[in-house]
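Researcher: Go.
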Amino acid sequence: MTDNWESVYSTPLPHRAELAKALLLEHDIPAVVINNQSSSYPTIGWGKSEVHVRAKDAILAKVILENEATFS
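Model: Structure:
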């Protein structure tokens, strides 16, 4: 990721990160999921999946996730 992107959501459950990404995309906020989980031990759940958005959209993205996300 470049410096213009920042993490707005982090979870050990990859499907929740994908749901957060989809919610942000519904609000026209470009988002990507960064999977930092260990591929050596995927069932143990080491690491997290993070949703990143452009820095200029970060505050709005956090507000949307706090107010509209029902999977948290």
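Model: The chain has a mean pLDDT of 87.
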